[in-house]
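Moderator note: this is an archived Q&A kept for reference. The question asked for a predicted structure of one protein chain; the sequence and the answer are reproduced below.
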Amino acid sequence: MKKRFLVLAMSLVMMLSVAACGSKPADKNDSDRRDDETKVEESLEETTSPDEEGSPLADWYNGEDRKTLEDTISSMFESQGLTFFVEIEEPDTIIYNYKYTEPLDLDGLSQDDINASFDANIDSIASTIISDIGNYQRTYGIPLTTIRVVYLNSDDSVVYSKDISEDYESSSSDDGSASGGAYDSLQAWVESDEAKLAVQQSNDALASSGMTVNISADGNVLVYEYYLSDELGISELPEDQMTASFESTVEAQKASITSLFESFETMYGLKVEAIRYSYFTEGGEELYSTDITNE
């Protein structure tokens, strides 16, 4: 259970930009937006929350792991103004639903405008979602091919929907522009307002998880420092079991970690040498550390 929790927590930190996007949309006009919303909603009509058992997908949905996932993610994203729940579509689709607790003001925005905003963030964490597909296949024996990410307004209307499969290709335009501008060094990025905001949002989302995260730079190595509450009991595990837990956590996120190298080079003009994941006790004692090199 502790190992699964660590994998989930890392995934959630990587998904924070998705939760935040759409809250500050660009000011554009298009009278066809609501017609587009209707089309998106119609595409979701086959979504089901089954009562029957029998298929691996239905068995997982009716099990405790799904309920734990919903409770954990809802708790983590509470400060972001989102709740989370899961639906499934037989035989091979899991739907991640993120619902805004307060009305999201979309007046003056076309569906294309909304999609462009969310697409850019979905692209940045697509590799994590693809990794999750493999985890579901291996752990639960689900013949999963697709995870659908859906954002709902507070009135249950669909704001955005995207299907992610193992052959997913970026849907955002690749014009070579950088969202955050170029930086002279990795340290300059770490000290930027952009990085500080990312850390703040990450810790807001992790507030109830017993974890906090900090970002630093060691030369040209990007360092993620995770501090684990003593209440999690991780440091009480036998050393080999604790090490194996951390190793499997990082291994499960290898695809996402690799994509970060490309993102930093594309978005910021920085070729990061390695990404270091370090885990500490609440008091600062190092429990585990590993470097993933940019090969």
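Archived answer notes: The radius of gyration is 19 Å.
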